[in-house]
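This section describes the prediction task in plain terms. A model, or a person checking by hand, is given the sequence of a single protein chain and must write out its three-dimensional structure as a string of tokens. No templates, partner chains or ligands are provided. The sample shown here is typical of the held-out split.
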Amino acid sequence: MSSLLLIVMYAALCGANTDSQQENIETLMDNVLVLRVPYGQGSMVYVPLTCGEAYQNQPVTWKKNGMELNPPLQGNQIKVLVEEMNGGNYTCHLSPNGEYLNHTVILVQLDPDNRTVILEEKSPEEGHIHCSASNYKGAFDCTWTITQSRSNAAVLLVKAERHLEKIPCELNADGSGVHCDYASCPYGEEQQRISLTVYIHSYSRLESYTKVFYLREIVRPEKLSHLRISEGKVFSWSYPDTWETPVTYYGLQFQVKLVNHGHSCNSDEHIMQHSITDDTKYEVTVKAKKYVFCVRAQDRHTRGPWSHWSQCTVNKQDVHC
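The expected answer:
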């Protein structure tokens, strides 16, 4: 009686363990499976693979990363043992000539995925992904930086959506960012945030990074155009060509500062004059003959990111803008 009870308990535990393993396996996209394993615990998980329904009664053999398996695995449906982060590309072939039939890539992701090593963190506030837009029309760009230790990493998939509506994105040629084009009404009030998730892998290790934001939080005006000087002391400029119109509705405010000649506009030292204004002109009141005039713009209403500096270098009568 006791032996029967042990057998029943063992079968129940095995069944529960199999179900648990299946819950940790997910299809990310065509031909790609993701196995989630706990951090710090040596895992050994059997992952089921299928070559395809059309090959059910065919003599099928399998390879891993182009190499023969030892012992060989045969059949349309198999199970492969994945130890820790050791996934790979499993291909099935028709015996005996070895004709390629299909493949499945197994990637391994830590659960929880909070020990990332592939992308550099830009800052604790911004995270690993930087996003920006030059206006409210809906197009935006997101960028990231791969760490030197994972220079082989490649982007597998990018998903962007707002309230279940998919946003089309195109990956940059070098894989360092995406350009997304969301057809939004620039006059509408944003009710839901945009969610962008980047899936990137280094060998068999998969990591996902998510950025969630309102468009108004990332709109950064482009550099101000037509910066010029007149009457010796009055600087003027125009709204960026890409900015929304009418400017009476999409107003900008401008930060103006003068720094000592030879210093950067980003310097917080050697500031000779500083002001915030809504006007597109500014009169310099200092008596200095050498200085750098700096101006940048920000959405007046949302107080979003500042544009990059536009500048004029003044050296007595010589002015370069």
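For orientation: The first helix runs from residue 2 to 23.
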